[in-house]
Design goal:
The complex is a heterodimer of chains A (463) and B (273).
Chain A: H1 2-17, H2 19-50, H3 57-73, H4 78-99, H5 109-131, H6 156-187, H7 198-219, H8 230-268, H9 276-301, H10 308-330, H11 332-342, H12 344-349, H13 354-380, H14 389-400, H15 405-430, H16 438-449
Helix pairs in contact in A: 1-15, 2-10, 2-11, 2-13, 2-14, 2-15, 3-4, 3-5, 3-13, 4-13, 6-7, 6-8, 6-9, 7-8, 10-11, 10-13, 11-13, 14-15, 14-16
Chain B: E1 21-32, E2 35-46, E3 50-54, H1 61-69, E4 76-81, E5 84-86, H2 91-97, E6 99-101, H3 114-120, H4 130-135, H5 139-157, H6 173-186, E7 191-195, H7 203-220, E8 223-227, H8 231-237, E9 240-245, E10 248-253, H9 255-260, H10 262-269
Parallel strand pairs in B: 3-8, 3-9, 6-7, 7-8
Antiparallel strand pairs in B: 1-2, 1-4, 4-5, 9-10
Helix pairs in contact in B: 3-6, 5-6
Classes of the chains: A mainly alpha (463), B alpha/beta (273).
């Protein structure tokens, strides 16, 4: 009975009675998760391009960190050392292509996988032979210690204004973009003229929402809700809910406009319906970045401890992820990468150079390994165990899907937050050390119900 | 596509005057270990014609395409394409010089959409750098749009607009074959190698495919080398036929000539010993 209480009731009570502490745990989990994602990204890249699970990714992280530390120990200045390590990883990519992959064209994937196991042992020995095997400290000058924002000159109103302007701009772009499609469809006689009506209606609602939002700051008693005074917070929440309501109506109407007109019209003409979800992603992205920034400032001001080192790691990872997503989605090389992963012979027949692609992808994943090496090495020192974080990346990949860059991120976050929360709140009931196995159990559950992961490409098999 | 013109209705009759030699294969021999897949075969493909390669199973037809396309490197012989004589082809050179192909067992990028599959055919034609593509602005964007337009024309031509967003792995076989043809066409090839484009199709699908092949030949002036088992199709489509058996060339000529050739009849029906 006591056990059940500890397992089912007590954690929730603790969470609800100390929300600030819960926030702290979650933020810690997110930071750790971002770092898992960074390692997982390297795997995803190579898996996407060659359909091979690169066993050596963990060691590549170690190798990059070892090279960086080794260079710095020999007195090379930091930035130059990072650049040189980048060059080393590039050379490594060329060497791997020249010595291993070149002979693996059209081979079974399991053979490529075994080649990466060999590469693992080679790199491990090679790195330690050159740079030594003792534990080293890596200091790349990322800020450390608790984040201090009390002297940052960001007033709450500045945040609010930025937020509102970003929202308005996003909505305007969204509106103009969508309405063009509707108008085209009306012009072509495929949609009734009334189909344009929800557009202006939506815009009106959005304007109403913004007006509500700003009115609070023009006429409201004070704008420093971030300090957390009850009265102020309450007014803010009321304003926010009105604003939110109007916004929802606005967006819903804009959306309806395209649904009625453009989509059906374009479908009839055999053309793509406009990619609705992109607009939502842009909107969500901007809003959540601003919300996150506001959250960090608010959290730090109200006493949540945020580690500056982990925060900068998260920012680095975020930049990498955006760059990689663009790389895969928008470039012809990205398309070529996916093609190579699917079918070597077909890729060759359309003139894609396998060697070029492999060098590119190994070089890119080498760079990702370098970033991961800098961050993990800076956190826990450069030593052999660094290569074992690859094991933590495995459940992340199973969760997110082996082929998805965003999957690696979301998977990393889920694992990071999940294991921290489980450790802190359910640890006492289960005897602690949950962090060690939680990720793997989660992965196991996912394998049962969704083997391709959250974002993975559906496994298509024709029989 | 070579031209922006609407595909013409299929023209009856064939050009009687064959063009200059586009590709010639001379004394090619290919063996895998002790197995001799191709033995001393020579033939040529002239500009603008449909050249069929036929023969019983295991005659070396697909190996021949693989040699032309650069997948296999023959031990002996030379390949002359557009006047350049080579000992063997390389896939990259073949693709960049204008040789496109389809495969016997459809080789598409299964996880990608029809559109993306056909877009890969434009890979060699896209020139903007990586970085500008990532920013997706200005010249890189215009380039993408321009190529996308070309691809859309191919999609319309092949009548696969309704499946352009579908992952090709899920499509029925006949449609996959069409997408594969689309990918090859996107390369705007001078020489198109088709490896059994109609295998496993029903009559209607075969008629569609025949129509596409003839339109490609007539409208875009693409030279086509075709492997096919359906003799009716071969006789209807091709200008000249080369017949292989056990890796040897046993006949070469117009469909009518080949049809009456005793060696060909023996190869297909067997000879009494």
């Amino acid at each position: 009975m006591d056990f059940l209480f500890k397992l089912l009731v007590e954690p929730w009570v603790t969470i609800l009675t100390a929300p600030l502490f819960f926030g702290e745990v979650v933020i810690g989990g997110i930071m750790a998760g971002v770092m898992y994602s960074l390692v997982a990204l390297g795997f995803v890249l190579i898996y996407k391009a060659s359909g091979v699970f690169n066993f050596a990714q963990g060691v590549m992280v170690l190798f990059a960190a070892l090279s960086l530390v080794g260079l710095m120990e020999r007195g090379v200045p930091l930035l130059l050392a990072i650049a040189l390590t980048g060059v080393i990883m590039l050379a490594l990519a060329f060497a791997i292509e020249r010595v291993i992959l070149r002979y693996m064209v059209n081979q079974e994937q399991i053979i490529l996988f075994m080649a990466t196991i060999g590469l693992t042992y080679f790199l491990e020995g090679f790195g330690e032979t050159i740079w030594g095997s003792n534990v080293k400290k890596l200091d790349v000058g990322l800020p450390d210690g608790p984040l201090n924002v009390s002297n940052v000159a960001i007033g709450p109103s500045v945040l609010v204004w930025t937020f509102a302007v970003a929202l308005a701009a996003t909505l305007a772009v969204l509106f103009l973009w969508r309405m063009r499609a509707v108008r085209r469809s009306v012009d072509a006689g495929r949609a009734p003229a009334l189909a344009v009506m929800p557009g202006p209606a939506g815009l009106a609602f959005a304007a109403l929402g913004l007006a509500c939002f700003f009115a609070r700051f023009f006429f409201g008693p004070e704008a420093d809700f971030i300090q957390g005074r009850v009265g102020a917070t309450a007014t803010f929440l009321v304003t926010l809910s009105w604003t939110g309501l109007a916004m929802v109506w606005g967006v819903a109407f804009v959306w309806l406009a395209t649904w009625l007109g453009a989509r059906q019209g374009l479908l009839d003409a055999g053309k793509d319906p406009p990619p609705l979800h992109y607009a939502w992603f842009i909107l969500l992205g901007i809003v959540s970045v601003i919300a996150a920034a506001a959250g960090v400032v608010w959290g730090a001001r109200s006493g949540i401890l945020i580690n500056a080192f982990e925060l900068s790691a998260a920012v680095i990872a975020a930049i990498l992820v955006i760059a990689l997503a663009l790389f895969f989605q928008k470039t012809r090389v990205g398309r070529a990468l996916r093609a190579v992963a699917d079918d070597h012979a077909a890729a060759l027949s359309v003139g894609i150079s396998l060697r070029g692609i492999w060098v590119i992808v190994w070089a890119v994943s080498g760079m990702v390994a370098l970033a991961a090496g800098i961050i993990w090495g800076g956190k826990s020192g450069v030593q052999f165990s660094l290569s074992l974080i690859a094991l933590k990346a495995l459940p992340v990949l199973i969760l997110g899907g082996f082929t998805s860059v965003p999957g690696a991120i979301v998977g990393g976050l889920i694992i990071g937050v999940g294991e921290k929360v489980a450790e802190v709140y359910w640890g006492p009931a289960l005897g602690g050390a949950i962090e060690n196995w939680f990720a793997y159990m989660l992965a196991l559950v996912f394998l049962l119900f969704r083997p391709q992961g959250l974002f993975g490409e559906k496994i298509i098999e024709r029989v | 596509m070579k031209a922006d013109v609407e595909p013409k209705p299929i023209v009856a009759g064939r050009p009687t005057e064959p063009g200059s030699v586009l590709l010639s294969v001379e004394n090619v021999s290919l063996s895998f270990g002790g197995v001799r897949a191709i033995r001393d075969v020579s033939f040529d493909i002239r500009k603008g014609e449909v050249r069929a390669i036929i023969g019983p199973n295991g005659a070396g037809k697909t190996s021949m395409l693989n040699v032309i396309n650069g997948f296999y490197h023959p031990q002996e012989g030379t390949i002359t394409f557009k006047g350049v004589r080579r000992h063997d082809m390389r896939p990259y050179i073949a693709a960049s010089q204008g040789i496109a192909r389809t495969f016997q067992n459809v080789a598409l990028f299964k996880g990608m959409s029809t559109l993306d599959n056909i877009m890969t055919g434009r890979t060699l034609k896209m020139r903007r750098g990586l970085l500008s593509h990532m920013v997706h602005f200005g010249p890189a964007k215009w380039e993408e749009i321009r190529h996308r337009e070309a691809v859309e024309r191919i999609i319309d031509f092949l009548e696969i607009a309704h499946i352009r967003k579908a992952p090709v792995g899920k499509l029925p076989y006949g449609l996959q074959k069409r997408v594969e043809l689309g990918r090859a066409l996107a390369m705007e090839p001078e020489l198109l190698l088709l490896d059994e484009p109609m295998a496993g199709m029903n009559l209607e699908e075969k008629q569609d495919m025949s129509r596409f092949i003839l339109t490609v030949k007539d409208t875009f002036n693409t030279t086509i080398a075709l492997i096919e088992h359906d003799m009716g199709v071969v006789m209807d489509l091709s200008d000249r036929v080369v017949v292989l058996d056990y890796g040897r060339k046993i006949a070469d000529g117009t469909p009518a000539e080949v049809q009456g050739n005793q060696a060909v009849i023996d190869a297909y029906l067997g000879v009494a010993h």
